[in-house]
Amino acid sequence: MKNFFKTQVLPNDYETANRLAMDIIRYTENMLHYREKLYIALSGGNTPLLMFEIIAKEYAKAFMWQKLHFFWVDERCVLESNPESNFGNAYKSLFSKISIPRENLHPIHGGDDPLNEVVRYTGEILTNVPCINNFPAFDLILLGMGNDGHTASIFPGQADLFETTAICSISQHPQTLQKRITLTGKVINNASEIVFLVTGTNKADKIKSIIHDDDADTYPAKKIKPSQGALSWYLDKEAAKYIKVE
After folding, report:
1. Hey, which bits of 146-223 come out as E strands?
2. Is there a smaller number of Cβ atoms within 10 Å at the N or the C end of the chain?
């Protein structure tokens, strides 16, 4: 099934996160009628953490967690115990509070040597996630967007990460110079469902450019163009104040 999700605008960050949480539950329940397992890749950020907290509180027993496998879109090169760790935050907010086998969680080991971890994580993805057109095909990838238009850990000026045939790669934050590990553009664009979750007025200008302007390719989020799936945006009114949603 494709195009299960639909671009929509909600009143505030909580309502936006809550709607996406509900839709993810409906999506997984529907898909598990036809599939034995689902492969989902998650992003970090404050709004996803709010969504994780909602799922943990409201939907902990909503479906069979043992049939879901979670990967991470990107990770900072820090230990899981570090407050900046995407996996660490997701584990505290959601996975420590639900009944899911530990082997169903596939974090990037941000505290390990980045070059070695790119090799290891590539192997873990290829071992678990089915491939279509020679690339892993996640069922669902959840993305956020930074104030500079970056997504995953692909920043402006790193267009090569959309051209490479590598599964994941090392990137670097242009200001802090912090190293990160990220899925590459071809892998992200190969997913069946790609959903952006974006809130806040400080992102409204970039949202307008990315959704409505054809010449906004300097923003990595603009380069998210599914090759065989569907793209949706979940926005609050502040983030969406300069766009029109059908």
Report:
1. 168-172, 179-183, 193-198
2. C
Phi and psi, residue 242, nearest 5°: -110, 10
CATH number for position 198: 3.40.50.1360
Q: What is the C-alpha radius of gyration for the chain, rounded to an integer number of angstroms?
A: 17
The string of DSSP codes covering 20-84 is: HHHHHHHHHHHHTTT-S-EEEEE--SHHHHHHHHHHHHH-TTSS-GGGEEEEESEEESS-TTSTT
In this predicted model, what pLDDT tens digit does every residue of 14-49 receive, in sequence order?
999 999 999 999 999 999 999 999 999 999 988 999
Closest CA to 179 of 117, 106, 244: 117
By DSSP bridging, strand 230-236 and strand 193-198 are: parallel
Beta-strand relationship, 74-76 and 131-132:
unpaired
Query: Cα separation of 14 and 50, whole Å?
Result: 7
Rounded distance between C-alpha atoms, residue 243 and residue 246, angstroms: 10
Q: Residue 243 domain-assigned?
A: no
Number of domains into which the chain is organized: 1
- pLDDT per position as a tens digit, 127-176: 999 999 999 999 999 999 999 999 999 999 999 999 999 999 999 999 99
CB–CB of 117/108 below 8 Å?
yes
Tell me which residue range forms the domain holding 183. Answer: 8-236
Quick check: is 152 in a domain? Answer: yes
